[in-house]
Amino acid sequence: MLAIGAKAPDFTLNDQEGDAFNLSESLKQGPLILYFYPKDDTPG
To answer: What confidence score (pLDDT) does residue 44 get?
Structure first.
């Protein structure tokens, strides 16, 4: 878990269309907001 205000580590994942998303490459275009759904795809 990251501390509040900590920088996210670089990662590459596939987006909803199957294209690669890379954090460091996206940050070259300017700031962005990352939002994680910790209970996504869980019952309840």
So the answer is: 64
What does the alpha-carbon distance between residue 10 and residue 8 come to, in Å, rounded to a whole number?
6
Which pairs with CB-CB distance under 8 Å and at least 24 residues apart come from 8-12? 8/34
> For the chain, how far is it from start to end, CA to CA, in angstroms?
23
- Give the span between the Cα atoms of 25 and 18, in whole angstroms: 17
Which three-class secondary structure state does DSSP give residue 24?
A: helix
The answer on pLDDT for 7 being more than 80 is yes
> The pTM is what?
0.65
Residue corresponding to tokens 């795809």: 41
